[in-house]
Structures are given as C-alpha cells and as structure tokens.
Amino acid sequence: MSFKNKVCIVTGAGQGIGYQICHQLAIQGAHVILNDLDATLAENAVKKNQSSIKSSMIAMGGDAGEISFIQKMVHTAVSTFGKLDIAIANAGITLFGDFFSYEPEAFFRVMQVNLGGTFFLAQAAAGQMKKQGTGGSLLFTSSVTGHQAHKNLAAYAMSKAALEMLAKNLVIELSEYNINVNTIAPGATLTERTLEDPAYEKVWSKLTPIGRPATVSDIANAALFLVSDEARHITGQSLVIDGGWTCVSPSPF
C-alpha cells in the first residue's frame, strides 16, 4: 500500500488507535490532519511523529462532534494540501451507565460525537471529494459492541451499530462518485485508556480465542487497507477485528 501525497483527516487521534493510524499513514507518505478533543494531546502526537518521520502533519484540537469544527478540518486540509482523499471518523466516546438511570445528557453527548460527528464528517468530506471528481475513501470506527450486547453500554452500542448501517446506506449515495465507505469494528484493544485497568490485558487474553487482545497496530493495519487503493472495490462493509471474540462472546462481567 502506498499513501504518498494522499491527504487524510483522522479524528480522535491524539493517542490509541487513531494515533497509530496517523502514524502509519505518515510513514507511507500521507499528509495528515490529526484531530483530538485535547489540543495538547494532538500537538504532542504530531511532534512525536515529526521527530522521526518527514511528513506533513497538522494538529487540530477541537470537538469532532461540532459541525463548524468538522467543516474547519475539511477547509484546512484543502487550503493546505489542495485536496482531500481520505476521511477516517475515529472519534468516539464511551459513557457507561445503567439503562434505568442513564442520563439524557450522557445519551445525547454519545450520539453527538459518535453519530453526528461521523455523519457530518462523511458529508463534508464526501462533498469535497465529489467536487474534486477523483473519488476517495471514508472509514468509520464502530465496535464489537455494535454486534454483541455488553452490559451498561446500551447507548454506546446503539451508536456503533448505527454507523455500520450508515456505511451501507452511503453506498447508494457515493458510489457514482467513486467514493467507497467502510467500517471497522475493533474488539478489546490495548490502548493508553484501556491499560489504565491493570487487569484488562489478563482478562481479555482469557476471553479472546486467539489468546490476546488487539494491539493498536492490529486495528490500524486493517484500517489502512480499507482506505487504500487496493480496497477500492470494497464498500459498505464492516470488518470485525477482535481475535474471534464475537464468535463466542464471553462477557468480562
């Protein structure tokens, strides 16, 4: 795969899966808009990349669920690099809560970021790609919880399942413009956030048939394939990356 001179937006990329996707894109020559809600995290992520990789990367701190900010990211990509080839809607939030007491504020925040942020990034990015007339790729980050029920994650799981249907529906809207759209659904993954739980790796190693949770590279490798030229004929699909967990689905609770 080669991403030389491709222009990409990746949201929620200050650390974890999003960061690794940006890192791998940069290694292969892409120009990257790296977004995170935490501006300092985004800036540090760019600095960390640029210390070892000679690529163009711009940090954009801001809320990927805000429509005006989404439009700003697309405008920045085009005004800086002249085009937009790839948009990866990776930003998302997980707010656990019992169904009977789940607060409306939590529900609507999850929907704003996970659904609204993805929908409107896809809309803005695809609009630019349509204008360019050269096609492009969209990728959404779903979750295994969009396939299997998980305690205290009703709202989150609902949002992730919806993303997969959005990708299918956009096949109708975008295929004539040579824009493909797919979804990845990661399972348990070792990130800065999940490793805050000292038992996480041990628990998920037992629950995962392949014997370990994913690394961020496992997820990023799949993501890069789906937005590469090699995957141009793949669209409307969701790729589960979970070491086989959804085949057996044992709960950690």
Descriptive notes:
- By secondary structure, the chain is α/β, with parallel strands linked by helices.
- The protein has one domain (7-242): Rossmann fold.
- Helices cover 44% and strands 15% of the residues.
- The protein contains eight helices and seven strands; from the N terminus they run E-H-E-H-E-H-E-H-E-H-E-H-H-E-H.
- The protein has helices at residues 16-27, 39-50, 67-81, 104-132, 154-174, 200-207, 216-226, 245-248, and strands at residues 7-10, 31-36, 57-61, 86-89, 136-141, 179-186, 238-241.
- It has a seven-stranded parallel sheet, with helices on both faces.
- Helix 1 (16-27) links the parallel strand 1 and strand 2.
- The model has no long low-confidence stretch (mean pLDDT 95).
Task: Tell me briefly what this model is.
This protein has 253 residues and is α/β, with parallel strands linked by helices.
What fraction of residues sit in β-strands?
5-15%
Tally of strands: 7
Discrete helix count = 8
How many distinct domains? Answer: 1
**Which spans of ≥5 residues are poorly predicted at pLDDT below 50?**
none
Shape: globular
Query: Which structural class fits the helix and strand makeup?
Result: alpha/beta
Largest pleated sheet = 7 strands, parallel
Average residue-wise pLDDT: 95
Strand order of the largest sheet: 3-2-1-4-5-6-7
What name does CATH use for the topology?
Rossmann fold
Throw out a few tags for this protein.
single chain, alpha/beta, Rossmann fold, 7-stranded parallel beta sheet, 8 helices, 44% helix, globular
